[in-house]
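Appendix C reproduces, verbatim, an entry submitted by the partner laboratory led by Prof. M.T., so that reviewers can inspect both the input and the predicted structure.
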Amino acid sequence: MYNTESVLVFKTNIQNDYERIYVQALLNSAAGIHDCTVDIEDVDKVLRIEVDSNTNEIDMEQYVIEKVNSYGFMCKPLEDEVQKVNTPNMYYANNTMYAN
C-alpha cells in the first residue's frame, strides 16, 4: 500500500471524455502518480493528481504541466483565488458562490 500525502490540482482545457481518458491513462502510468482524475463538468476542467509521499511536489507539478502541454492541452496550477462577482455582498471561491 502507498502513502498519498498530496494532491496536486490543475486548471486545464480538457473538454470531453475522449480527451479525459487519454490524459488520465498517460499520467496514471507515470512513476509517483497513484491516481489522476479530470472533472470535465467543472468550469476549470480540474485535473487532480494523487502524489506518492516520496515524490517531490515541485518536480511533479512541472512534469505534469509539461506532459499535459505536450499532449496539446493547457495545464496550469489551480490557484485558490477569491473572485469578486457583480452581485452585492457575494463572492466566488473555488467554483462556489457565497453570501457575505
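The CA atoms of residues 68 and 75 lie 6 Å apart. Additional entries are available on request from the coordinating office.
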